[in-house]
Amino acid sequence: MAFVAKSRFFAGVATALLGLAGTAHAAAQCGNNSSGFPEWIQQYKQEAQAQGIGSRGIRALDNVTYASKTINADRNMKSFKYSLDKFMQVRGAQTIVSRGKKQKAQNAALFDRIEQRYGVPAGPLLAIWGMETGFGAYLGSQNTLSAVATLAYDCRRPDYFRPHLNAALQLVDNGTLSPDAKGAMHGEIGQTQFLPLNVLKYGADGDGNGRIDMVRSKADALASTANFLRGHGWQKGAGYQPGQPNYSAIQGWNAASVYQQAIAIMGAQIDGQ
């Protein structure tokens, strides 16, 4: 699953997709179980085609299935209900910090380049990388299109996920995402787990090879994560603990308070603060 288009292309497409999604979701109805999913997909194909998604993206919808595991995961995110101490324990904070310090030392030049370009230090990036995929070791096994399509159909958060479905179809349509791509349960992609629309908006070429590959290139994944944080208001040189200017950018990464606090705490420990 290689993201071969350049970041300046992604940025323009993302803006167009936001408008596309608003039109598409107005007609398609949602559902709370699998019974209406095949019909919904057929309707959505027509709407997506009318809004400019090409034949490759439309055909990819022929093979999506209702992702029951995704719905179960969406309904049972128990770890976000833990206390901060319990959450840190479950997520293996001590291991992430220890490994994060080693990663920082081993990839010092990369993190220096990223901080110079985006203003984001290594610590929070490594905390995110470690929590999301164990530093790239666990990228997920759920079919990305099926996950995103299921959540776009589901009545819980259709307005949130339909722009991501359209973005995924655009990525497939342009050959930058395989229809068979696999990732996390909610359709997140790559080493730091970007949803499809965020790939379009914030994907960055961190290794300078002219491509954006969130799966195989840690440099691309980490640069994209820094670009995401900068896009959510990160200020170079400002603090990122609760109450400090950059904490709001961390809040943009994940809505769960314990997750936000964990990033800040582990990031500071990795950065030696």
UniProtKB/TrEMBL annotation:
The keyword Signal applies. It holds the Pfam family SLT_2. The keyword Transferase does not apply. This is Lytic murein transglycosylase. Keywords: Signal. Residues 37-240 form the Transglycosylase SLT domain. It comes from Phyllobacterium ifriqiyense. InterPro entries: Lysozyme-like_dom_sf, MltB-like, SLT_2. Residues 1-26 form the signal peptide.
